[in-house]
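Predict the 3D structure for this chain.
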Amino acid sequence: MIVGISNDFQFRDSLSPKVKDTLAEKEILFPPYDADQLRSILSPRAEKAFHDDVLSDDVVPLCAAFAAQDTGSARQAIRLLREAGELAQAADSDAVTEEHVRNAQDELEKNQLYEGMQELTTQGHAVLCALAYHQALDDVPVRSRDLYERYVKICDRLDTDSVSERRVRDHLSDMNMLGLINLYERNEGLSAGRYHEYELDVPLKAVLEVLLETTRFEELANIIQSTADDNNLLQSDISDY
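Done. Predicted structure below.
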């Protein structure tokens, strides 16, 4: 007997016809956990991880609810509980409260977005850099054709090959799925037709932090930061992040 575990429901499509013909598999699906199930998973772990009377009554249910609403993952719920505990400890608090959980949720979301930006390819960073430049000019939302022109100039400066405008739109769609940018579809009828516009959905300062840590983009990030400073766009940019 062979047991295979995968999150990819289409992995069998890559198997050869001979393998699929002899597989004779039995499929068992495990749906995401709901809030009650996550609470049952978290509770015994919380009892072992925290001293008595340290957790407020609503901490475990709230961690379970947040995770259930998002991915239904026990790993996410446990990570959220741990982060809430670390925030309470850092604040020298006697108890972990609902506020610590909500702050932990915000912190984990920020980290997820930050990691998403860090893991972009060179082309993805170039596209993000182009959009950040328009953001620094306060020229957003920006049309895809204008953004593409800026992207090509950035690639020339980096001495790297540029891709087609269609591929740039694919990168933008990926970043929209990651929650890094906003995409707007415009329709101006027969005169201008349909087109897309884009703007950052994360603070410009956070984008610049990632680009500054990426050696190839450090010079461009400094230029964008200087442009944003000239336009006073970094003053309150990070306040809600």
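The chain has two domains: 35-117, 121-230.
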